[in-house]
Amino acid sequence: MKSLFYLVVTMVVMIACTNEEFDANSEVKKEEVKTKIASLAEKYDVNVDFFEINPSEKTENEMSLEEIEELFRDIKQLREHPVELKMYKDKEENGCMFYSTKEQKPSVPLAKTRSEIYSFSDWIWNLTWFSVTLIEDNKNVTVMTDITGLSIYTYSQSYASGYVSGNAISFNSTGKIKATITQVVGFNLSYVINSSGTYDKSAGKGSVTVSAY
Prior knowledge:
Elements: H1 2-43, E1 48-51, H2 65-80, E2 83-93, E3 96-100, H3 114-117, H4 120-126, E4 130-137, E5 140-147, E6 153-165, E7 168-182, E8 186-200, E9 205-212
Antiparallel strand pairs: 1-8, 2-3, 2-9, 3-4, 4-5, 6-7, 7-8, 8-9
Helix pairs in contact: 1-2, 2-4
């Protein structure tokens, strides 16, 4: 009976030690990954805000370090090489004229798998899901910018201005994109999108320059 008691105690101690060792290894891995992500963020000049992940909140849709670096690289590329979108007349409604880049947008995808959710290159580089709409109402111009398609992102427009001069409408806007990314550690990522341009009413077309910082 004593032998059985000692065996049980020994097993409990071994399990406890194993759990402690697992927790220690897990913490070491977290710190290693956090250090690597912080190093990548510094390399590509991206701001990240780390947070702890509850094990019960973890999902299989975690980004690899390679995917995270690709995202950071694409943001840096957009800062250095702004993208141009074409703008066209959209419609006339209730005495207001609408001009938009939306004609270029493909149908909005249903982002379900990790590859769809984290397919950043096409999205951020071509900005196919970023839209600019101008609403002209008796020389007053409202500028509306938005993103669609990926639910892990939120976007808020913080500043916009537009004015009419002859047949030209000039505009400028600023907004912030935010995303929550998970790996062994989690972090919030945010960056600013600036869009500006001119629409020529006599020519029936315009252009928008989009950049990140």
